[in-house]
TrEMBL record:
The keyword Transmembrane applies. The chain crosses the membrane at residues 6-25, 65-91, 178-199, 220-245, 257-277. Residues 124-239 form the Type II secretion system protein GspF domain. It is found in: Cell membrane. It is a multi-pass membrane protein. It comes from the Bacteria. It comes from Streptomyces spongiicola. This is Type II secretion system protein GspF domain-containing protein. InterPro entries: T2SS_GspF_dom (IPR018076).
Amino acid sequence: MTTVAMYTAVCAAVCAGAAVCLTVGRDEGLRRARLLLASGSLVREGPRRLPVHWRRLVDPMRREWLCLPAGVLLAVLGESVLPLLAGAVAVPLTGRRLRASEQRRAEADRAAAVIALCGGIVGELRAGGQPGQALLAAGRATGALGAAEAAVLSAARFGGDVPAELRRASREPGAEGLAGLAACWLVAVDSGAGLAAGLDRLEAALRSERDQQASLRAQLAGARATVVVLALLPVIGLALGWALGADPLRILLHSPAGLGCLVVGGLLEAVGLYWAARIVRAAERP
């Protein structure tokens, strides 16, 4: 194996690993473990962030733009503009995938905050607080009310229609549990039933549903890993070709047969990844 072939194979492996990390997203195992093992304490779990001095450098550059340097590197190695064009096309696609992943994480964090809100209200009520005071304290501590926090807390403080505001807040993604809180609040006000008992049952139901979804995602982790391995097989084949002394990029990018194989293989790879991702998403639906 020559030095140039080894350098080329290493660069290709690094680019492939970066592309897969951008497409698949960050590992959610630690976050799901925290949610599964969390108690009903009022812990507001926010997104994991870098230190401030690093965040100032990383935040202005969105992660999907890392596809361009990978395309430039492959364009230089293959002496063709096609990898650069592919990297440019991959930027919006990768950005869409990353934004969808961030949205799912935000919804999961919001659902966990709603569970913590129910537990916090129950704790305040059992400590002798009034329902409005309990909602004020727990709402500020958990941040589960989101953009509607001001409206809900104002209704609780000044005797407004708290169930209506809670139902309005439950329309946001991940906050569907607030509709159950509104129903418990309405029943407690109308019939004098114990609000703490109803919220206890609501918290248990929401926690059970969340744990079931987390367990399902954990069981699908093997399927996701299989999809990633299958997606990497063509890149591994190119690296093996370089290791054996061949020049697969020149064949793929500078010959009619190679271009045909590249187009057909790329289409089959995209269709296979889309199909596998659709199967996994269908299995994740409740």
